[in-house]
Design goal:
Jelly Rolls; 1 helix; five-stranded antiparallel sheet; four-stranded antiparallel sheet; mainly beta
């Protein structure tokens, strides 16, 4: 499934919108809106060391199996989803967190509409 990257930021330069979030108390699930029939995202931190991206998934949407070169930490902010990591299925709901290991196939699918935070740390361990 393709998704609309930074759809919540397209009215202004994304970097400027991200800077406006600094030093403020944030409710992450309120920073990305659901969009019918698709996956939407909003990057709130993007540095050489890593990024934090918020996603919203409409019901029956998901991301197909893929790998990433670095560990990724996913926290469910709203709703429910299923996550597959190397063939093992995990049921997740609001408040749950899982780590996708680098180089390991993973995928996810909405059980209900759901929102998640994805934290990617780009530096490898020594």
């Amino acid at each position: 499934m393709e998704y609309n990257h930074d759809t919540q930021e397209n009215s202004e330069a994304p970097g400027k919108k991200r800077q406006e979030l600094r030093a403020k108390v944030l409710t992450l699930k309120d920073l990305v809106e659901y969009q019918d029939g698709t996956v939407a995202s909003r990057m709130i931190v993007n540095t050489k060391a890593g990024s934090i991206t918020l996603f919203s998934f409409d019901e029956d949407e998901g991301l197909s199996e893929h790998t990433a070169p670095f560990d990724a930490v996913v926290t469910i902010l709203d709703g429910e989803c299923e996550v597959w990591i190397q063939g093992v299925t995990h049921q997740m709901k609001e408040g749950d967190t899982i780590i996708f290991p680098a180089g390991v196939p993973h995928a996810l699918s909405a059980v209900t509409r759901f929102k998640m935070s994805l934290t990617m740390i780009r530096e490898k361990e020594p």
